[in-house]
Fold this sequence. Notes:
The structure holds two protein chains of two kinds. Chain A is α+β, with helices and mostly antiparallel strands. Chain A folds into two domains: 15-201, BirA Bifunctional Protein, domain 2; 209-250, SH3 type barrels (Roll). In chain A, 25% of the residues lie in helices and 32% in strands. Chain A contains five helices and twelve strands. Chain A has a seven-stranded mixed sheet, with helices on both faces. A five-stranded antiparallel sheet of chain A has the order 11-10-9-8-12, with no helix packed on it. In chain A, helix 2 runs antiparallel to helix 4 (169-188) and helix 2 crosses helix 5. Chain A is globular and about 55 Å long. By secondary structure, chain B is mainly beta. Chain B has two domains: 3-56, no CATH class; 78-161, CATH 2.40.50.100. Chain B has helices at 3-16, 74-81, and strands at 20-24, 28-33, 39-43, 85-88, 93-96, 112-113, 118-124, 127-132, 137-142, 148-150, 155-161. At the A-B interface, helix 2 and strand 6 of A face strand 7 and strand 8 of B. Strand 6 of chain A pairs parallel with strand 8 of chain B.
Amino acid sequence: MQNLIIDTLFIGQKIIYLPTCQSTNTYALDLLADDSVLEGTTVITSHQTAGRGQRGNTWEAEPDQNLTFSTILMPNFLPIVENFYLNMAVALGIQQFLENYLGSGVKIKWPNDILYNRQKICGVLIENIIRKTIIEKSVVGIGVNINQTRFGVDTATSLKNIMGRDFHLEPLLAQLLKSLEEQYLILRQKDHKQLKINYLHKLIGYQESLTYQVNDQYYEGKIMDIETSGKLKLEINNEIRSFDFKEISFVY
Amino acid sequence: MKAKEIQDLIDFISKSGLDEVNIETESFKLSVKKNSRIVVANETLVSQTPAIFTTPVNTPSLSTPVVDTPATPATPKASDESKYLTIKSPMIGTFYRAAGPDSPPFATVGDEVKAGQVVCIIEAMKLFNEIESEISGKIVKILVENASPVEYDQPLFLVEPN
């Protein structure tokens, strides 16, 4: 992480580089014990040995090939009930960054995976610290597949697999952090309406008929909206139904 | 009857202007008296002993005052509980006692927790929220099973404040 010039107000202005690390999210969460930690502090590693995904899942990335980092945010202006807008800002920040390289094939899979033509290129793990009714601090963990070309699953891809060339990680990191900050500033201005419109327009299945699985049943549905809680509002058989993350899955 | 429902009921009664309310069903008896700060809850699990209830429950007459409610075994426990505080869920989601399936729980019964200490995780829409306790004290009871859904304001932990 040399020659790193990051043109942001605060995200990534303090970078902690760890050649190897179990999980950047865990490391960043531990940093929060110190009250003097600055917003935007970013922990990045070249080799994450025990990357965490969604609860109990792992995030596996080959050493030196990918962007694997966690950024500390302090969205203490955001009530917990508006929690999902943070998710929208983060997902959009990554989507916009990748769209600059890959074009309109980059989409958000609800709630926060980033896909290129239905293959996963980026995963997100957001862990918040809740005090009373506000999000006091947040650790946003991001893993973007860059130069890795082989994956354990065929549902994953990378920038190199799509573009056919290698990338330097440093400038990509700087651009991604900048893009995240742009969206985070929109969140901070409480422009929730704008965030939601942008998020919906990049969301797979928005106003488009796709197959979903709900309790072992298959349905054709169209995403019509996202509730403030983050629940998906689907039109199924001319009826609007809302679904929690655990209640529904996409069928490819 | 869940702790949350009892609590909602008490909140409702406290706002109602009634001084005393007795509710009795086949499965529980609940007496709430304002200003006395004593809540008597006597719950009988119908499902475990269905045979007993093949005949109607012997209900006390309407004139029976609250003090006669046959809940003697529960009374000392219930009045003890009045000194406890609860840590409630600030949101709808799934309650987890540990950071991951293989991690130790944040707090177990008997642990002393401090205000600001993380006691559990509530997951909602793939966002993981570490919940800080607002109170300091000893965890007396964990009111929710790991990995089960919780509602907004649902009591999660019973804490004996210090």
